[in-house]
Amino acid sequence: IKALASPNITYNEINNSGDDGLETSGLPTINYNNFSDNTSYDLRATMQGIQTIDAENNYWGTANENIIRNKIRDYDDNGSLVRVDYSPFYTDKVELLPVSNFISQTLAGGEIKFSWNTHILASQYLLYHDNQTGIIDTTSAWVTLDSTYLEYTATLSDGEYKLGIIAQSIDGEKSPLDSCLAIADGTPPTLLSAAGNTGHTVISATFS
């Protein structure tokens, strides 16, 4: 990575390099990657200065912090170099994170609208529901959507449902299930009362 470059490096397998896993003279953000079995350093910082490289939430091939420390070259090895902030770190391989902010909204006519935040690695979103059993079966998706979708509206029979969503990457890796509760209500409102005055065009109505 060249000087002055500050890319986001996420969800990569940085393994089995005959030299350094990653060498940077810039200030990238390095999160949620898996490093292992690189011959020299997993991460070598060559930029001089007082800045810090954000390298949190990676897996460095081990849970031993001393080994991790020795696989990173930065200020601790040469006081003129920038620091690498590697903590917190994963103690096991980084998997896909769940889809975030998966919520439901009850609409009229038994419709339910679902929405969620974009997942950086999703090529598809897989939606599931529990058929009102309280248990989501993820063996078969209820709806499959491409990654351009961030919401979906469905009409379901009246009742409470547990819905789930999984992000699937282009290589078939799946995120953990995220779920939410949803209520479908297709019952039209009931007119409780209506009143108006002779000579006026305004009618007041009250519905359930």
TrEMBL record:
This is Right handed beta helix domain-containing protein. It comes from marine sediment metagenome.
